[in-house]
Amino acid sequence: GADVSISKSPPQGTDIQRHYLQGFVAQNLHITHAFYTHPKILIAALNGPAVGLSAALTGFADFVYAAPHTFILTPFSSLGLVAEGGSSRAFVSRLGISKANEALIMSKRITCEELVSVGYVNGVMDVKPGEDDKFLELVLREVDDRLGKHLIPESLLGIKKLIRRPERDLLDAQGVAEVFGGLDRFVSGVPLWKGAVWWLYWVFEHKFAIAGTWYVIPSCGFALH
């Protein structure tokens, strides 16, 4: 799920740039790098809305399964921020430039139907909101069927490495550009008050549970993340 809480202002007298360098920049860069360099097969199971950085990171999943009521929302422009989580590259690659512009520049919600139409998700499970156990069961059944013992683990990992290889240097550079762009915005002070307004709007206008599950397919069996 997503932590959509608003960052607290630095204590009075704090070096603002250093504060966000040690917090936002370091943490954001680290988690994004961890996702796009992960050597094993990553599966995202989205049984509800994915918001912000959590939504952005789904762009690095090797396979994405969703519920019909799923949507992704990256409201960075509504918060006075810039794109983060590698989304300025991953979304363009996975959604296409038109939908990526809608998601990132317009802060538009991208529905499950739209995600299916552009090939962002690999499958939609027939579940209703609140049927979390059923959703998980269906996803695990699908994964076990498609990524079962009939496949050679070393081949899976070797193929993933080849697929991801051309993007590695580009993502390294783009990740740095994103976090320093975000740093500039935080130093300006805009995201703090804009974020508070947006969060209040979200709380009062939406009743969705932020839901999602990450899986890693190791060389044998599953690890739930």
Automatic annotation (TrEMBL):
Keywords in alphabetical order: Isomerase, Peroxisome, Virulence
| Residue ranges the record marks as coiled coil | none
- Localization per Swiss-Prot or TrEMBL: Peroxisome
- Kinase is among the record's keywords: no
Q: Which InterPro entries match?
A: ClpP/crotonase-like_dom_sf, ECH/Chromodomain_protein, Enoyl-CoA_hydra/iso
Give the record's GO CC terms: peroxisomal matrix
GO biological process terms, semicolon-separated: fatty acid beta-oxidation
Q: Name one GO molecular function term.
A: delta(3)-delta(2)-enoyl-CoA isomerase activity
Pfam families attached to this UniProt entry:
ECH_1 (PF00378)
> What is the protein name for this chain?
ClpP/crotonase
Question: Which species does this protein come from?
Answer: Aureobasidium pullulans
